[in-house]
Design goal:
Blueprint: E1 8-11, E2 16-17, E3 20-21, H1 23-30, H2 34-43, E4 50-52, E5 58-61, H3 62-68, E6 73-76
Antiparallel strand pairs: 1-2, 1-6, 3-5, 4-5
Length: about 80
């Protein structure tokens, strides 16, 4: 998990995720390379919403990513 939040998400693969994750974590979930993910985020071609975490980094929103991957999920308290 990349960040702490009031809730986490348990995906169908059994993994727990925060509500946002780094592009590297998102790439691993989709089976993509880390460098490709960062390039896609920087160029605006990443297939799901991202949010700027600072001037140079972005976070991928977990729920749209899981939906894009066709992976069911449920909310759980940490």
């Amino acid at each position: 998990m990349s960040t702490a939040s009031a809730f986490t998400v348990r995906a169908a693969n059994g993994q727990l995720y925060a509500l946002t994750m780094s592009p590297a974590e998102a790439a691993a979930l989709l089976g993509l390379g880390r460098t490709s993910a960062y390039e896609m985020v920087a160029s605006g071609t990443w297939p799901t919403p991202v949010t700027p975490a600072s001037k140079v980094t972005h976070q991928v929103l977990t729920l749209p990513l899981l939906a894009y991957a066709g992976m069911p999920y449920e909310f759980v308290k940490p």
